[in-house]
Automatic annotation (TrEMBL):
<feature type="coiled-coil region">
    <location>
        <begin position="536"/>
        <end position="563"/>
    </location>
</feature>
<dbReference type="InterPro" id="IPR050478">
    <property type="entry name" value="Ethylene_sulfur-biosynth"/>
</dbReference>
<feature type="compositionally biased region" description="Polar residues">
    <location>
        <begin position="319"/>
        <end position="341"/>
    </location>
</feature>
<dbReference type="InterPro" id="IPR044822">
    <property type="entry name" value="Myb_DNA-bind_4"/>
</dbReference>
<protein>
    <recommendedName>
        <fullName>1-aminocyclopropane-1-carboxylate synthase-like protein 1</fullName>
    </recommendedName>
</protein>
<comment type="similarity">
    <text>Belongs to the class-I pyridoxal-phosphate-dependent aminotransferase family.</text>
</comment>
<dbReference type="Pfam" id="PF00155">
    <property type="entry name" value="Aminotran_1_2"/>
</dbReference>
<dbReference type="InterPro" id="IPR015422">
    <property type="entry name" value="PyrdxlP-dep_Trfase_small"/>
</dbReference>
<keyword id="KW-0175">Coiled coil</keyword>
<dbReference type="InterPro" id="IPR004838">
    <property type="entry name" value="NHTrfase_class1_PyrdxlP-BS"/>
</dbReference>
<dbReference type="InterPro" id="IPR015424">
    <property type="entry name" value="PyrdxlP-dep_Trfase"/>
</dbReference>
<feature type="compositionally biased region" description="Basic and acidic residues">
    <location>
        <begin position="800"/>
        <end position="822"/>
    </location>
</feature>
<feature type="domain" description="Myb/SANT-like DNA-binding">
    <location>
        <begin position="15"/>
        <end position="83"/>
    </location>
</feature>
<feature type="compositionally biased region" description="Polar residues">
    <location>
        <begin position="192"/>
        <end position="212"/>
    </location>
</feature>
<feature type="compositionally biased region" description="Basic and acidic residues">
    <location>
        <begin position="288"/>
        <end position="311"/>
    </location>
</feature>
<dbReference type="GO" id="GO:0030170">
    <property type="term" value="F:pyridoxal phosphate binding"/>
</dbReference>
<feature type="domain" description="Aminotransferase class I/classII large">
    <location>
        <begin position="411"/>
        <end position="772"/>
    </location>
</feature>
């Protein structure tokens, strides 16, 4: 244990702090920045915490509280000047007096720096950074004094210095003072020996006992004080003059404390005021920016309201114009009577051509006015467009039938999915060879598809399509489903507003596939349920019909770029012969049209007497550079959820273009591996899956056809696909698509989903597609619900009630419509007062339809909005109510608005001119 030598007296040091630790503590504590922060802070615990942190960096593990207590004890010892004297008197005095000189050449380590200062007069074990070696004796100059001199320091330890705060009992803070009194240094002999000149102690106040220390004066300028309290030239005064000087120093030091406190307070107040002003400026700037944003939002809101009101007036004029046009065309042909144009033709022009007017797309009629300002025109058309197939599928997903949890849910006989072979697929997909992951599967692939998958696709199509020569893998492109392939082919083969020929009826989602992204139209080749001319079967496609439709398209100014053929056909189930396909391909070659052949049902022909002939089986294609064949696993492999489709084309330019789009329609690597494993497993396909799948398809088809025969429902008897094309037109009160949609709603009311003919652009109302590829108990329940719906429609009470109330409804609705027309005339008269604008409108007379069972409050969108239906009544009523409740007519009268915006009067004039035409 280290011992401290005190002029011949040894005693043990404290058990907690070693001598090197005390030296390090005093070096850090005595630095000027630390002392300044201790003086200016009322709460200075964080300063001692940082001192402790610096000590820990030097290997001394102390807390801030321990540092505070140690400094307090050292300062008490330093103040007392008793017989025991201060243990570190000389060290603390030198650290205090040399603080300014040491700081000028030092960097405090408390904030990450290093100590470079040297304390003058400290040598050996007292030098900073050089702790005493183990076993050394640390000598500190102290002196044992008599009790009579307790109040006076030893003569060798006392200097007289200027006005410094020495009132330890009354003062609340310690401060620095300049201007020390200078006296001559006198050396005198006394009874107790020679005097020794050392640094005089600095002042210490009670307030800073645990936090800060005052600054002493330099030993070079301090006069020598004799042991008896006198000085040179004042020896007789002795002790009395010493106490007088002490009292004078106390008085002068009090003024310095007050001045420094006041200066510190004023500095703090100035800093606080500057900070407050800066915060106020920031707040005012933020409020100004917020006010600007509010004004901009208000301007946008006002602009949107005006645009919305203009759209309402535009819709009103269009409705009136279309109603007058309907009256003028009431004597047109039966085909035009059956096919009534929809307002979706104005919202979705890329979806339709003139030949498609009979069966338009299905818009969200109730949301037509909800134009989103956040979307483009194309984005709004995508958002508002929804076909009947999508609407029915959404309702099914919202209320699925389940034997246990939801027995009254919807039975889905409208979505073409094969649900008969799950057990076979589950067993095969769970084999070990299907569960493999390689690094390449988790990396970016060739966007046309991994090479191993394209090789297997080429081998698979060569085998099952009976190609005369092996197909080349480089001509294969794989994407996530045939819908993506249709979209990509339309984008690469056609320009926006170009058109593609397609026989109707056809799978309705193709309209969205080619139109939503690429704005490509479909020009329909209508096929009729009754054979005409040289036809030998219903819905027969011939080259003559293709020629006629192509001529009509050219008359309409359409640029036909391609022809789509479905073989086997969806929804007809038709399988075209090789001769028919060759004739279609020759027609396309003659007119330089691309041919997209969809053969996705090629392995789902379940009647052995019918043979499917793929285009790839032909010895030579008429135009191989313009012939492209599609196939996918969703139908033939009963994997609608595994989105994998492929196209084979010998056109290298097309393959390269599709490769550029592949990154948007890629198939995951593990899925590609699984598909390759299935395609190469010929034994499982030929001996287990395909035969069993065809057998189950045949049994389900047989059950469904027998049920239809029992209910006396006509249908097309075909042996391919998952569906039956049935004729329910006898259950329609009128041969219109509005009645067909009402029947579709009636089926939904009875919790069974079918697909109506207008969803497939069929030109004859009343045809429905019924899916039979589901479990037998669901087929039975679905057919029972269909039977219940048809029986309800046929019930004499309901039909008689509809007939007897029809005339009364005609009269009442005619009266209501005349009132609506009168109200509209009054609004127009009030709005348009200029002499150049005619406001007289003809009375609109529209024949009403009687209420049917399908007029229920279903969330179903009326896509076939017949002018004779009550949709026009509700639209006019809604517009009339909005006109009455809005002050738009008062604010934007033509003669008033023209002064603000001259274009408004022109807009009104143009709208009325169009309405009168």
């Amino acid at each position: 244990m280290h011992l401290i030598h005190v002029y011949g007296k040894k005693y043990e040091r404290g058990s907690n702090w070693s001598e090197p630790e005390v030296l390090e503590l005093l070096q850090i504590w005595s630095d000027v920045p630390v002392q300044t922060e201790l003086v200016t802070c009322l709460r200075n615990q964080h300063v001692f915490n940082r001192i402790a942190s610096t000590l820990r960096q030097k290997g001394i593990n102390r807390t801030g509280d321990q540092c505070r207590e140690k400094i307090k004890k050292l300062k008490l010892e330093y103040k007392q000047k008793t017989l025991r004297s201060a243990r570190y008197y000389e060290l603390m005095e030198r650290a205090q007096s040399n603080r300014s000189a040491a700081t000028s050449g030092s960097t405090l380590p408390l904030w990450g720096g290093t100590v470079t200062n040297q304390v003058t007069g400290m040598q050996g074990s007292e030098a900073p950074g050089h702790p005493p070696r183990t076993g050394e004796i640390l000598e500190i100059k102290t002196e044992v004094m008599s009790s009579d001199d307790e109040a006076v320091g030893p003569p060798e330890m006392l200097y007289e210095f200027g006005p410094v705060d020495e009132d330890e009992e009354a003062s609340a803070a310690e401060h620095k003072h300049a201007g020390p009194n200078t006296e001559e240094n006198t050396e005198m002999d006394g009874e107790q020996g020679n005097t020794h000149v050392i640094c005089s102690p600095s002042d210490c106040s009670d307030q800073n006992m645990t936090g800060s220390s005052g600054a002493g004066v330099s030993p070079a300028t301090a006069p020598i004080v004799m042991r008896d309290g006198g000085s040179h030239g004042d020896q007789e005064g002795g002790s009395g003059s010493f106490h007088q000087r002490k009292r004078r120093r106390v008085g002068r030091g009090g003024d310095g404390v007050l001045s420094n406190a006041l200066a510190g307070y004023l500095s703090w107040q100035q800093t606080a005021e500057e900070r407050f002003l800066a915060l106020e400026e920031d707040r005012m700037r933020q409020e100004a920016r917020a006010e600007e944003r509010r004004e901009q939002q208000e301007e946008r809101r006002a602009k949107q309201e005006r645009e919305h009101e203009f759209r309402l007036m535009s819709m009103l004029t269009k409705v009136l114009s279309s109603s007058r046009g309907t009256e003028e065309q009431s004597a047109s042909t039966s085909r035009e009577t059956l096919g009534v144009p929809s307002t979706s033709q104005t919202l979705f022009p890329y979806m339709l051509s003139s030949s498609a007017k009979a069966v338009p797309s299905m818009p969200l009629g109730d949301q037509m006015a909800q134009y989103s300002p956040y979307l483009s025109r194309r984005g709004n058309s995508m958002r508002l467009h929804q076909g009947i197939l999508q609407e029915g599928f959404n309702q099914y997903h919202a209320n699925k039938h389940d034997e246990n949890s939801n027995p009254h849910g919807i039975i889905n006989l409208g979505t073409s999915e094969n649900k008969l072979c799950f057990d076979l697929l589950q067993k095969r997909l769970m084999r070990p060879d299907m569960l493999q992951i390689e690094p390449a599967f988790l990396q970016y692939p060739d966007w046309k598809g991994h090479s191993f998958l394209r090789e297997e696709v080429a081998k698979f199509l060569s085998h099952y399509c009976r190609s005369p020569k092996p197909l080349k893998p480089k001509n294969v492109v794989v994407m996530n489903g045939c819908g993506s392939l249709f979209s990509a082919l339309a984008a690469t083969l056609c320009d926006p507003e170009d058109a593609i020929l397609i026989p109707s009826p056809f799978y309705g989602v193709i309209t969205e596939d080619v139109g939503l992204y690429s704005s490509v139209k479909l020009h329909h080749v209508p096929l009729y349920s009754q054979p005409t001319g040289s036809d030998v079967r219903p819905f027969q496609l011939t080259v003559e019909k293709l020629e006629n439709s192509l001529k009509e398209a050219k008359k309409e100014g359409l640029n036909i770029k391609a022809l789509i053929l479905l073989n086997p056909h969806n929804p007809l189930g038709e399988v075209y012969s090789s001769e028919e396909m060759i004739s279609f391909l020759e027609f396309a070659k003659m007119h330089k049209l691309h041919v997209i052949v969809d053969e996705i049902y090629m392995l789902s022909v379940f009647n052995e007497t019918d043979t499917f002939h793929s285009v790839l089986s032909l010895d030579g294609l008429p135009d191989p550079q313009r012939t492209h064949i599609m196939w996918g696993v969703s139908k033939d492999f009963a994997m609608a959820g595994m989105r994998v489709g492929m196209v084979y084309s010998e056109n290298r330019d097309l393959v390269q273009a599709l490769d550029q789009l592949g990154c948007f329609h890629g198939v995951p690597g593990p899925t590609q591996y699984q598909m390759a494993q299935l395609l190469r497993d010929r034994d499982w396909l030929n001996s287990e899956f395909l035969p069993e799948n065809r057998r189950r398809l045949r049994e389900a088809h047989s059950f469904m056809t027998e049920e239809l025969k029992k209910q006396d429902i006509p249908f097309l008897h075909r042996s391919a696909g998952f569906f039956i094309w049935a004729d329910l037109s006898k259950y329609l009160r009128e041969k219109t698509f509005a009645e067909e949609l009402s029947l579709w709603r009636c089926f939904l009311k009875h919790k069974v989903l079918l697909s109506c003919g207008q969803a497939f652009s069929c030109v004859s109302p009343g045809w429905f597609r019924i899916i039979f590829t589901d479990q037998l108990h669901k087929l039975k329940l679905g057919m029972q619900r269909i039977k219940n719906a048809l029986e309800e429609l046929q019930s004499s009470s309901v039909l008689e009630k509809q007939r007897t109330t029809s005339d009364e409804q005609d009269d009442s609705r005619g009266t209501a419509r005349r009132e609506d027309t009168k109200t509209i005339d009054e609004c127009k008269d009030k709005t348009l007062k200029t002499s150049s604008v005619q406001t007289k409108l003809d009375t609109v007379h529209i024949k009403t339809e009687p209420v049917s069972l399908a007029d229920e409050n279903f969330p179903v969108i009326n896509g076939q909005s017949d002018i004779r239906s009550k949709s026009l009544d509700s639209l006019i009523g809604t517009l009339r109510q909005q006109i009455h409740t809005s002050d738009w007519l008062e604010k934007y009268k033509p003669e008033l608005a023209a002064g603000q915006d001259p274009t408004q009067l022109d807009v009104f004039t143009d709208l009325l001119d169009k309405a009168r035409k």
